[in-house]
Specification:
With 174 residues, this protein is mostly beta strands. It has no helices and 13 strands. The chain has strands at 22-23, 32-37, 43-47, 52-56, 61-67, 78-80, 87-91, 94-99, 103-108, 114-119, 125-129, 134-138, 144-148. The protein starts with 21 loop residues before the first strand and ends in a 26-residue tail after the last strand.
């Protein structure tokens, strides 16, 4: 039972209704391809075609949290902090970092095809690279290291080290 649950319907025609608040079920999006949901029911949508991160609150009102100058390339991964003071977006081969005071900046690049994003309990970003078949941890200063996946389509498995095990097209992360 979810008392504040609502459904965001994608309107048949893609578009951009601007950034002012409006009913989420009546807003246009272009190629939405990434979600982040907070415990209170707030839904964040990666509106890739409009280069925006949209926010639909538990009452069903949608606004724009921020825009990504230059757009979002092949985005899927999205993570937003509980207090909305930090967000990460997967954009093609780079991870973008947003803060209200600093705007959007490239946090780390050099990936092949980013999948999903999360932040571990220590506050470090964790991302999947679908085309590289690996999972990376990105330190707070932007350095990345492989934590799982051997970069191949086969190998490893039960009882083997995570970095020696194949993760073909890895996407999901939690």
């Amino acid at each position: 039972f979810f008392p504040n649950r609502f459904v965001v319907e994608v309107l048949a025609e893609p578009g951009d209704d601007g950034d002012s608040p409006g009913p989420a079920t009546q807003r246009h999006l272009v190629s939405p391809n990434g979600l982040w949901v907070r415990g209170d029911g707030t839904l964040y949508i990666l509106d890739t075609g409009n280069g925006k991160v949209r926010k639909a609150n538990a009452a069903g009102v949608m606004t724009t949290l921020f825009k990504v100058s230059g757009g979002i390339d092949d985005g899927r991964g999205l993570w937003v902090s509980e207090d909305e003071t930090l967000a990460y977006v997967a954009s093609g081969t780079s991870v973008k970092r947003w803060t209200p005071s600093g705007g959007v900046k490239t946090h780390e690049s050099g990936f092949k095809e980013l999948g999903n994003i999360t932040v571990d309990p220590a506050g470090r970003l964790v991302v999947t690279d679908r085309a590289d078949h690996r999972v990376y941890r990105i330190s707070n200063n932007g350095n990345k290291s492989v934590i799982a996946g051997n970069g191949e389509l086969t190998g490893g498995g039960d009882g083997e080290l995570a970095k020696d095990t194949a993760l073909p097209g890895v996407r999901g992360i939690c």
